[in-house]
Amino acid sequence: MTVTLTDATPDATAEAATVEFRGLRRTFGTTTALDGLDLTVAPGELLALLGPSGCGKTTALRMLAGFETPDSGAVLVDGRDITHAPAHRRDAGMVFQSYSLFPHLDCVDNVAFGPRMRKAGKAERRKQAAELLELVGLGDKGDRYPHQLSGGQQQRVALARALALRPRVLLLDEPLSALDAKVRLTLREEIRRIQRELGITTLFVTHDQEEALSMADRVAVMRDGRLEQCAPPAELYGRPATAFVAEFVGTMSRIPGHLDGGTGFVDVLGHRLPVDGDAPAAGEVDVLVRPEDLRVTTDGACSARIVSTAFLGATTRLTVRLADATEVKADLPTHEAAALAAGDAVTVLPRERPVLVAARAAH
């Protein structure tokens, strides 16, 4: 599908906006929603705000939209302080988790509503709406009403409506969470395609790590109102800056180990591995290891035992109980895992690569 962007639609060649959060703080009673957030979104970038419920990601998005005001700090777009500007002067379009379409308007009129409020002519706004519906793959649904559309189609209309305001910043607040898995996968690919085609700076709030890692140029992981790490998906997964990021993004097992003070090495599962990043004081620690970084064999002492197996396609995930009762996850190629079953005695070994360590968790 090829869509020609006219003067009535967002201009893919326009200079994309730079967004900055500087020292944002916001409290609600005794709850701190944001605790000094500093973050910059590059022009044309799709940045995902990722974190557990209550981490502050939606509050940050609402501050950019103009729906919340910080207790201190500033929100800037292209260096201009918009912290106290009204929402309708923010030059931002927002798509919510709930589609919020007008039930008495068809798709064209839903999309054209913003331009209509801005006094655009009828012919202009309907032409713009038709082009945007074509852009989101609903060019033949302009005369349909919201109740005649699926959830995914309604969300596409909501996206087109946000784009009809010709925003320089697009804000997406968990827009896919109410959809089923197949529709969610298709729509996130469409959103990414449209965002790249228009070159619009986009902030995407989600608690779904798979969505964040598959869609974003960079992912900002938040915790308790603070930024833990902001990095491209591959770096975030492969080189997490903190134990929280490591365990929140992807699957991670904690395995008891012994940190040798001053050497930068940790002993775990009978191997001596280099420590990646900061480490707690020497002594007993937890070593954080991803499933693909563990090997499972039937050689050696075989002091571990397989608890369960889960088929994941090309790989099979094993849950293995170690001799000390610690349970770990290990991914094997499915053709290798076919020879193993729950109850089998095995040996678990780490791959020779740097590992993160953390203070021993209380059990």
Give a nutshell description of this structure.
By secondary structure, the chain is of the alpha+beta class.
Note the topology.
Elements: E1 19-28, E2 31-41, E3 46-50, H1 57-65, E4 72-77, E5 80-81, E6 92-95, H2 107-111, H3 113-117, H4 122-135, H5 151-163, E7 169-173, H6 181-198, E8 201-206, H7 209-215, E9 218-223, E10 226-231, H8 233-238, H9 243-248, E11 253-260, E12 265-268, E13 271-274, E14 283-289, E15 294-297, E16 304-311, E17 315-321, E18 327-333, H10 334-337, E19 345-350, E20 356-359
Parallel strand pairs: 3-8, 3-9, 6-7, 7-8
Antiparallel strand pairs: 1-2, 1-4, 4-5, 9-10, 11-12, 11-14, 12-13, 14-20, 15-19, 16-17, 16-19, 17-18
Helix pairs in contact: 4-5
Fold and architecture overview:
With 363 residues, the chain is of the alpha+beta class. Helices cover 24% and strands 33% of the residues. It is built from 10 helices and 20 strands. The chain has helices at residues 57-65, 107-111, 113-117, 122-135, 151-163, 181-198, 209-215, 233-238, 243-248, 334-337, and strands at 19-28, 31-41, 46-50, 72-77, 80-81, 92-95, 169-173, 201-206, 218-223, 226-231, 253-260, 265-268, 271-274, 283-289, 294-297, 304-311, 315-321, 327-333, 345-350, 356-359. It has a 6-stranded mixed β-sheet with strand order 6-7-8-3-9-10, sandwiched between helices. A 5-stranded antiparallel β-sheet has the order 13-12-11-14-20. The longest helix is centred in the middle third of the chain and has 18 residues, at 181-198. It is globular, with a radius of gyration of 24 Å. Mean pLDDT is 89; it is low at 1-13.
